[in-house]
From TrEMBL:
Catalytic function, reaction form: 2 GTP = 3',3'-c-di-GMP + 2 diphosphate
Protein species of origin: Thalassolituus pacificus
Gene Ontology BP, a term: cell adhesion involved in single-species biofilm formation
Highest taxon of the lineage: Bacteria
Gene Ontology MF annotations: diguanylate cyclase activity
Cofactor(s) essential for the protein: Mg(2+)
Protein name, UniProt field: diguanylate cyclase
EC id: 2.7.7.65
Xref: CDD domains: GGDEF
Length: 169
């Protein structure tokens, strides 16, 4: 119980930012040591401020919980999902290729379209990267954030993949 208070987000019961970052670091080290496949995504709810401004923060919280449940139910048991900001989530997909990760997020977006939030529909955008030799967790997150920004700039409701080497520092 006490451990959950330290590692879990109080609204969604997903991993909190600190625990998400700790788990990401572990998976990146495993990827670097053993050459395992690893993909990381940052996901952000589109136009979330508008939802809060229009419907209020209580509804905004319900939307965040709705999305968290979609992620929990739509990912594998070994995948790592955490809420790392207000409406921002990180997903770590061990032993996953970019193609499989992309299909996973396309499936989640489709499921969200087919089963929208009770009062209205919403979408998410994402930035997806794969772990490459020599790339550490901070560089991966920077690249995922750049890809997320590109997804937002390109019209939202999509996941942009950066599938090329980035320099690790």
């Amino acid at each position: 119980m006490v451990r959950n208070l330290v590692t879990r987000d109080s609204l969604t019961s997903l991993l909190n930012r600190r625990e998400s970052m700790r788990r990401l670091k572990e998976e990146v080290l495993r990827c670097q040591r053993y050459g395992n496949k690893l993909c990381v995504a940052l996901l952000d709810l589109d136009r979330f401020k508008r939802i809060n401004d229009t419907y209020g923060h209580a509804v905004g919280d319900r939307v965040i919980k709705h999305f968290a449940l979609l992620l929990k139910n739509g990912l594998r048991d070994g995948d790592i999902v955490g809420r790392v900001g207000g409406e921002e989530f990180m997903v770590v997909l061990p032993e996953t290729t970019v193609a499989v990760a992309r299909r996973t997020f396309e499936r989640l977006a489709e499921e969200l379209r087919e089963n929208p939030f009770s009062d209205f529909s919403y979408t998410f955008s994402g930035g997806l990267v794969r772990c490459l030799p020599g790339v550490m967790d901070d560089a991966l997150l920077e690249q995922a954030d750049v890809a997320l920004y590109e997804a937002k700039a390109a019209g939202r409701d999509q996941v942009v993949c950066v599938d090329h080497p980035v320099s690790g520092h």
